[in-house]
Amino acid sequence: MFKLVLAAVVATLFAIAPMQASGAGAGAGAGATEQAQKSKPAKVAKKKPKRKAKARATKKRKEVASVGANGQRMVRRVRTVNGKRVVTYHPARTAAAAVAAVATAGDRAGLDKTDDPLSLRSSVAYVVDQNSAEVLFEKNANVALPIASITKLMTGMVVMEAKQDLDEVLRVTDADVDRLKYSSSRLPVGARMTRRELLHITLMSSENRAASALGRNYPGGIEAFVAAMNAKARALGMKDTRYVDTSGLSSRNVSSARDLVKLVMAAHEDPLLREFSTTPKSTVQASGRTMHYANTNYLVSLPDWNIGLQKTGFINEAGRCLVMQAMIHGRNVVMVFLDSKGKMSRTADAGRIRRWIESLPDRMDVDAVRTPTITASAPALPH
Question: Who is most buried in 7, 32, 137, 321, counting CB within 10 A?
Fold first, then answer.
């Protein structure tokens, strides 16, 4: 009997085992089905980003195409602002456009191909002994080129020769805003300053609105002032020179290095022009507001330079320019550098000229040691 009961229990256990196994299989199948059901949305979720990415790409293409229709290529820029992703589009400058943007009048005249013994970066250079007028170095000195803010030296001369009240308070107006080059200025419209302060920052910091205000407050206005500038140039024998404004923002302000030496020598005779052009730093008052200005030529701050007068200049058509009177190796020298390539190249060229002069004997035969004269045909003056 016991054996019969034991056999029945064993048979029951074998009958239950397949059921559990079948249950396990069903559970696995259910789990697989559930997992498959879960995986379907996952696959859909993966497809959605692709569709979004495609939509973004399409949107991007539409934006570029809409801009491209105007003939201007655009550059897409992505940045994070306050934790948010910001996409902007900016005009792209082609290589040809970049070259055209930096090509100067000197480049167009082929002056950048001129070699010289000192390997200067300036297309034009002219160095003269101030006392004897002997030429020490010459490179394309007869070529008339845009002179940018070197113009302001003549502006200063006309102001001083007019003997206008330097303490008269003048007002900067909307007429002084640069609408030719759209250059920036620290002088707001409505600022009031004395003529002296305007002249100071014109020569020291090349402030364009100050130069404009000086010309506008001349008897007869800006046209009379420019006429006086040209008359003074003729009086100084500056045959290659023409002025059309007081600041030099226009590329039609042109001169040659030979002419500019005459301008520097004449301006150097005025103590105030010497002082204002070589002040390293200055504080001026504009409508009661204190403003700090620095010289555009850092050489005036260096103790190993003895500079009596200087002026820098730059517009795209002119390149980097510099005129300077300095005492070098016991002699007064006037230096002119036009169409220099590189932000620091004009002052570096001045350093090269200085080291060359310092290497010469104290008493020298100029004809024997002067560097070979290099000349170039001058382009026609613009009208």
Answer: 321
Q: Quote the strand ranges of the chain, DSSP E.
A: 74-81, 84-91, 122-129, 135-139, 145-146, 169-171, 192-194, 254-255, 281-286, 289-294, 307-315, 319-328, 331-340
Tell me which residues are annotated as active site.
149, 152, 206
- Residue listed under structure tokens 């007068």: 309
CA-to-CA distance for 29 and 379, rounded, in angstroms?
92
pLDDT for the residue numbered 86: 74
Q: Are 350 and 304 in contact (CB under 8 A)?
A: no
137's torsion region: left (phi>0), alpha (psi -120 to 50) or beta? Answer: beta
Amino acid at 382: P
For the segment 223-262, what is each residue's pLDDT rounded down to a tens digit?
A: 999 999 999 999 999 999 999 999 999 999 999 999 999 9
Report the distance separating Cα 150 and Cα 246, nearest Å. 10
Among candidate residues 99, 137, 135, the one with its CA nearest the CA of residue 118: 137
Paired residues of 90 in beta bridges:
75
Tokens of 73: 């290529």
Structure tokens at 6: 């034991």
